[in-house]
Design a protein that fits this description.
heterodimer; A: alpha/beta; globular; B: alpha/beta; five-stranded parallel beta sheet; 19 strands
Chain lengths: ~220, ~475
């Protein structure tokens, strides 16, 4: 699995609460059976003025000049600054795949939806939770300064601002460990194979009806 | 010591072990798969040379992408006109074949929306842990099972290990006290709950729905409520097991029978929260205060009573929320203060894992019977949740009631809930929809969704705008 260690990158602000995963990657692109290539359709309906089609070339499509991502100052941003409840709605992992494919490695917001949070960890994207007033401050600074960058360090759990000041953030140890080491969690779980088998055996004895696999 | 919640009991009974880092290994009894979120997981298994831990714990069906017209459906997979959708459905078929997973294929009479057919077949049983790469897996909690959506990496993880690594959620009780008034349905209850606690109100929690009004709901109604737990931010919603639950399960194709049935039913009776259980949060609603709900914005929390008006962003609270309301009104093409009943509609959609079961179709049919769809409505679709729901409805003559009124009677699937197939809204069109999400573009590029109950959608189809279904005479 992909690691996250540190990211020193340009910040793009997305000033919108409750950004849902349909907004991040609309459904027509979910028809792909691959994990890659979703970046060009990230935020498709906000980013382009026309309707996006799967497998279409996006280079000639009309861009929405009002959408933040189309402003030259945010080109090649790798840190996304967002509002509350980011990633709500559908469980589609295509949302983190699209963010990652476009180049976002880290998101900073006051809160996230649960399923989206898990999906990001699985894809080596760091989600940082900060108090709403600190996020607001970052929005103001990003808007005020062209080329505003932040340096995120996961081991130290710090964000360093351009003036050298630091913001500390918290993260669960389990998630930190997975991100720093890029661990394959299926292999990790299978280290407990004997425990799983033992559980399954006693569970089947106690609740045989849960193991029925043929209908009448 | 305080008693245990139903969620505590389900968690503990499936705990394989606590891991050193504060997470736990939880055993998964049942895993549903569909064509959209599974291909990359199967590919992952192939690349790593892994096999499913217990193939029989999985059940698959294609639902998101399937066409709903008889023309396309009568030819099975080969009939799918959209070549990209067709590949995805074929991939599910070949993956299930390769890995030995039971699938209800597109032309199986039992085919349908995964969250409709699971309970219908008796695959969903009380006391199970159930996951699926679909956020509306919370639906199955209506039967007292712990069910939630997962991403594709977790789909692969469950296939390979029959477990998930999880952190226990907090417990929330949402109590709906008293009895609902006539014309007010499970959909109105859950929309009112989301309107009250917000779309992130349940984040980090498992919500148990309780109180007299929930107990009085049918199992299908409880499914509607649990289905939308995720729209309140909670991955899982639950309702305690009672006699109705056990009665619902009895005799279904995959349900236990004979002596095993007796044992199972006895065990299921304990699937309730203890009277002295501790909840981290409790929310109370009064059933008599709930009236039919209509969503006006682009988040399921943006709801108003059918008797109300589109709210003013100035009253929305902090600046982020005010912006949120303004963005929503702009997208929806609505102005603050507009009466909900003045919102004109272009299309109507009755279906989805929220509201496509037989009771939903009966409720909609009772409204349109002997009436006609308004001339201003371009299209009104009724999409049953499964082949068996469709068959039952046809036996009851509901299909003729719909078609005589001018609604279209379609083949089962997710259809216009997420519009991955050809069933889509046009740009700027308003739709009365019995689905679960009113996000921007959800039902089609530029489409404007209003979430309502089946009866309200049917009434809107007849009038061309929202009306209070409580004022209509039903047939």
């Amino acid at each position: 699995m992909k690691k996250f260690i540190a990211e020193d990158g340009l910040v793009m602000p997305l000033d919108r609460a409750n950004v849902d995963t349909d907004y991040i990657i609309p459904k027509q692109f979910l028809k792909s059976i691959k994990r890659t290539g979703f970046g060009k359709n990230l935020f498709d309906e906000a980013r382009y003025l026309d309707k996006g089609l799967p497998d279409a070339d996006c280079s000639g499509r009309p861009l929405n000049p009002d959408f933040v991502m189309n402003q030259p100052r945010y080109e090649s941003a790798s840190i996304l600054l967002a509002r509350e409840n980011f990633g709500c709605g559908s469980s589609r992992e295509h949302a983190p795949w699209a963010l990652d494919d476009y180049g976002f490695r880290c998101i900073i917001a006051p809160s996230y939806a649960d399923i989206f949070f898990n999906n990001c960890v699985k894809n080596g994207i760091l989600l940082i939770v900060l108090e709403e007033n600190i996020v607001e401050e970052l929005f103001q600074e990003t808007n005020a300064t062209v080329g505003y960058r932040l340096a995120v360090d996961l081991a130290d759990q710090t964000i360093t601002k351009p003036d050298g000041s630091q913001i500390a953030f918290t993260i669960e140890d389990s998630r930190k460990n997975i991100l720093l080491n890029g661990l394959d969690d299926i292999s990790l779980t299978l280290q407990n194979k004997d425990d799983i088998q033992a559980f399954e055996t006693q569970w089947q004895e106690r609740s045989p009806w849960l193991f029925t696999t043929t209908g009448s | 010591m305080a008693g245990k919640t139903l969620y505590d009991k389900l968690w503990e009974s499936h705990l394989v072990k606590d891991l050193d880092d504060g997470t736990s290994l939880i055993y998964i009894d049942l895993h549903f798969l569909h064509e959209v979120t599974s291909p990359q997981a199967f590919e992952g298994l192939r690349l790593a040379g892994r096999k499913p831990w217990r193939a029989g714990a999985n059940m698959a069906t294609p639902d998101h992408n399937v066409p709903t017209t008889l023309d396309e459906r009568s030819q099975g997979v080969e009939g799918i006109v959209d070549p990209v959708s067709k590949i995805q459905v074929q991939s599910l078929d070949s993956n299930c074949n390769e890995f030995g997973i039971d699938e209800f294929e597109i032309d199986d009479p039992r085919h349908g929306i995964v969250h409709v057919i699971g309970p219908e077949q008796g695959r969903t049983l009380p006391g199970m842990t159930i996951v699926c790469g679909d956020s509306h897996t919370s639906t199955h909690g209506a039967l007292g099972s712990l069910a939630h959506g997962i991403g594709t990496s977790e789909v692969e993880h469950v296939l390979a290990t029959q477990c998930l690594v999880q952190k226990k959620a907090k417990n929330m009780l949402v109590r709906v006290n008293g009895q609902l008034n006539p014309g007010v349905t499970a959909k109105d209850v859950v929309l009112a709950i989301i309107g009250k606690i917000g779309t992130a109100g349940g984040t980090g929690y498992t919500i148990e729905f309780g109180g007299e009004a929930i107990q009085s709901l049918s199992i299908e109604g409880r499914m509607t409520v649990c289905n939308m737990a995720i729209e309140a931010g909670a991955r899982a919603g639950l309702v305690a097991v009672d006699d109705k639950t056990i009665e619902y399960v009895k005799g279904r194709p995959f349900a236990p029978n004979g002596e095993t049935w007796e044992k199972a039913a006895a065990a299921w009776k304990g699937l309730v929260s203890d009277a002295d259980a501790d909840f981290d949060a409790v929310v109370d609603l009064e059933a008599t205060e709930i009236v039919p709900q209509v969503s006006w914005g682009t988040s399921p929390e943006m709801v108003a009573p059918v008797t109300g008006v589109v709210p003013d962003p100035a009253d929305a609270g902090n600046e982020t929320r005010q912006n949120n309301y303004q963005q929503a009104l702009k997208y929806m093409g609505l102005e603050a203060g507009t009466p909900i009943q003045a919102i004109k509609l272009d299309r109507v959609f009755i279906g989805s894992c929220t509201n496509s079961r037989i009771e939903d179709l009966r409720a909609a049919a009772a409204v349109v019977k002997g009436r006609k769809v308004a001339d201003s409505i371009k299209e009104a679709l009724v999409v049953p949740g499964s082949g068996l729901v469709k068959k039952q409805a046809e036996e009851e003559g509901l299909d003729r009631i719909f078609t005589e009124a001018g609604l279209q009677w379609r083949e089962p699937g997710c259809s216009m809930c997420l519009a991955m197939n050809a069933d889509q809204l046009g740009e700027g069109e308003h739709c009365a929809s019995t689905s679960n999400r009113n996000f921007e573009g959800r039902q089609g590029f530029g489409g404007r969704t209003h979430l309502v109950s089946p009866a309200m959608a049917a009434a809107a189809a007849v009038h061309g705008h929202f009306v209070d279904v409580r004022e209509l005479q039903l047939h």
